[in-house]
Amino acid sequence: MCGIFAYSGPGDVTQTLMDGLRKLEYRGYDSSGIAFFSTDDRIQCVRACGDISELEKLLSDEVRESSGKTGVHSGMTSSMNGSGIGHTRWATHGAPTKDNAHPHRAGPFYVIHNGVIENEGELKNLIDPQSLASETDTEVIAHLLLRFYKEEKGDLVKSVFKTMNCLKGSYAVTVLCEERPGEMIAFKQGPPLALCKGEGWIISSDIYSVGEDVQEVIFLEDGEALFLKDQEFQIYDRQGRKIQKEFKIIPREQSLLDKKGFPHFMLKEIFEQPDVTRKILENSIHRHEGQLNVKPAGGDHESFNRLIKKVSSVRIVACGSSYFAGLFGKYLIEEFADVMVEVEPASEFIYRKAVFDTNTLILFISQSGETADTLTALNRVKEKGLKTISLCNVPNSSLDRQVDYGFYMQAGQEVGVASTKAFTSSLIWLILLAFHFSKERKTLSSEREKSLVKSLLQLPPYMEQVLGYEDFFLETAEALKTFSGFLYLGRGVFYPIALEGALKLKEIAYIHAEGYPAGEMKHGPLALIDKNKAVVALLPSEGILYDKTLTNLKEARTRGAEIIGLGGKDTSELKKLCNHYLPLPKLPEFLLPVLAVIPLQMMAYYISRSFGYNADRPRNLAKSVTVE
Predict the structure, then answer these.
(1) SS3 142
(2) Is-contact 174 17, C-beta < 8 A?
(3) CA–CA separation, 405 vs 49, rounded Å?
(4) pLDDT tens digits for range 345-391
(5) Who is most buried in 82, 232, 472, 543, counting CB within 10 A?
(6) H-run or E-run covering 334
(7) What positions carry a catalytic annotation?
(8) Quick check: bond before 103 cis, omega within 30?
(9) Which residues of 178-194 are buried (b: 16+ CB within 10 A; e: fewer)?
């Protein structure tokens, strides 16, 4: 939620800020703003409501010309140094208006902030409330800095730490002070913030916004503060002591922010799923031997294997799509490894009394590795001394750095707010982990292992085959969008996929949709069924669950529902029962849901597009939820 991008160094500072904000816009697009030093060492602040293009319009030729005389913007690379801060906002406190856009000012201080200050009302007693010009919690930070700066007679370090000690909640803050050109301040508690080294210095909430020429990064930890001055920096810990931190190399495996001819990042990312799956499998199996090769990217491989041999249960903690992936993992791990698995939304887990066995292994799933609820849950678990593993898409994220063992989704950068390829990657990894658990616990024979590997290798070409359904949904989107509600039904491993399909439609098409266990439909949801409702059914290829789901569909069809069916069986009975039926390639039951999720993603995308919505930027949502 929200994006921070600040720069200090040579060249065109305003252009550098704008380039960074464009790459961060998927994290928040309610409003944006920048503040930078202009010709006379005064700070120029420009803010706009709406997306980045609105801010660009306000950066007039006059503003750019005045800043260019100091090397901030000259239309060419300059050897002189300039500095500025930029922010793209996802509104929490206050409506998405220009007045509430960042940066916020108090005296010489200009502040940008990601997070939520929970004691905002209490802190207003420390400042003059009449001086506030916005509805945001962020502006209070600026006024606290100003108060303590005066009290400490210009001692910036003391002013920052006194401010930090007042704040409760989550925050990543970057500051310019008009009285101190060439200096920049950053401090955090919760949301990510990093110092990146290139031709100049970049402070960003997302290291993949910094550009290909920036290779080294220092991640600030909670309670730390960064002071940058004249191209040198000093970091302090939460006790105010100077500390040394080493730079890390930024991994460059992420996809470039290029739509590659697709109208939206979301559609591009849907079509990237076969290649992402190939990459995961190449690194996780020995193709010729027909054997698994599952190893954590972070943590010792042998100690991980010893751990999973003795675990008594697994607790999966996640949010949103990652939570649904965790539900899918529960079915697989219990089925293949014979280990009890519980799955909990992180937002519920952190506020209840949870009972653990000492041999419980906790798995955290988060695309960004920065999800606030998930990180809070991790801290709680670490206090109890339990072993932890993560599945996330961003190496060196907060989650990745704190767990005992880390696995990477390897999906590449996902820009669309509604997760697609990261969700599918999670499913693949959970299948692999289930098999690996089974192998290490001696419940997987070598013959079965070879058969499973052979089936996994069929996934990428079959995924490409399913992507051929695109034209079907392109043609039927206009008809499907007329329904007032959708009920997604599934049993067993298909139930979590039904939940994910419904979520996608809600996220980007703003249509009420509900995922439900098919067998529970007659215990309530059947009352909703009429000719204005559509039922999306995910069917197994065969067996008792296929027969039972078929019965549920007949109950819905009898009451006038439009039936859209997906499954691994292609019979005249199904085609007659369903208004629209898409047969999926034949695969083992545990892999079929991976194929089923793709047409559900496309259905949501094309219905959204038929309404004229921007699927990449659904209203009220942000890509990375870094506040509770």
Answers:
(1) helix
(2) no
(3) 42
(4) 999 998 888 888 889 999 999 999 988 899 999 999 988 899 999 99
(5) 82
(6) helix 320-337
(7) 2, 623
(8) yes
(9) eebbebbbbbbbbbbbb
CA pair distance 95, 117, nearest whole angstrom: 16
What are the Cα distances from residue 142, in Å, to 160, 283, 412?
10, 48, 36
Percentages (nearest 5) of helix, strand, coil residues in the chain: 40, 25, 35
The whole-angstrom distance between residue 518's C-alpha and the CA centroid of its chain comes to 29
**Is pLDDT at 532 greater than 60 in this prediction?**
yes
Please report the pLDDT score of residue 76 as a whole number.
31
Q: What is the tens place of the pLDDT at every residue in 198-213?
A: 888 999 988 877 777 6
Instruction: Specify the residue for token string 């464009």.
Output: 22
Return d(Cα 177, Cα 31) in angstroms, integer: 22
- The angle at the Cα of 155, spanning 153 to 158, to the nearest 5 degrees, equals 115
Instruction: Decide: 438 and 263 in contact? Cβ < 8 Å.
Output: no
Tokens 């040579």 label which residue?
Answer: 10
Q: H or E stretch including 349?
A: helix 346-349
Q: Where are the alpha helices (DSSP H) in 537-587?
A: 544-558, 572-577
Nearest to 391 by CA among 355, 352, 354, 431: 431
The per-residue pLDDT for 72 is 39
What is the spatial distance between Cα 456 and Cα 156, in angstroms, rounded to a whole number?
57
Which tokens go with 125?
């007693």
Distance of alpha carbon 41 from alpha carbon 98, whole angstroms: 24
* Pairing of β 485-490 and β 533-539: parallel
In this structure, are residues 228 and 185 in contact, taking their beta carbons and an 8 Å threshold? yes
| Torsion region of 410: left, alpha or beta (phi above 0 gives left; psi -120 to 50 gives alpha) | left
Confidence of residue 261 (pLDDT cuts 50, 70, 90): confident
Place of tokens 């932890």: 388
Single-letter residue type at 373: D
DSSP string for 401-459:
HHSSEEEE-------SSS-SHHHHHHHHHHHHHHHHHHHHTT-S-HHHHHHHHHHHHTH
Q: Tell me which DSSP letter residue 127 carries.
A: S
Residue 66 is predicted with a pLDDT of 53
Is residue 74's pLDDT more than 50?
no
Residue type, 527: A
What is residue 231's DSSP assignment? T
Q: Write out the two tokens for 59.
A: 């950066």
Tens digit of each residue's pLDDT (9 = 90 or more) over 303-354 = 999 999 999 999 999 999 999 999 999 999 999 999 999 999 999 998 888 8
The CA-based dihedral angle spanning residues 272, 277, 279, 282, taken in that order and rounded to the nearest 10 degrees: -160
Any bridge partners for residue 17, and if so which? Answer: none
Tokens of 55: 């801010």
| Structural tokens at position 179 | 């009285």
Helices and strands, number each (H, E), in the chain: 21, 27
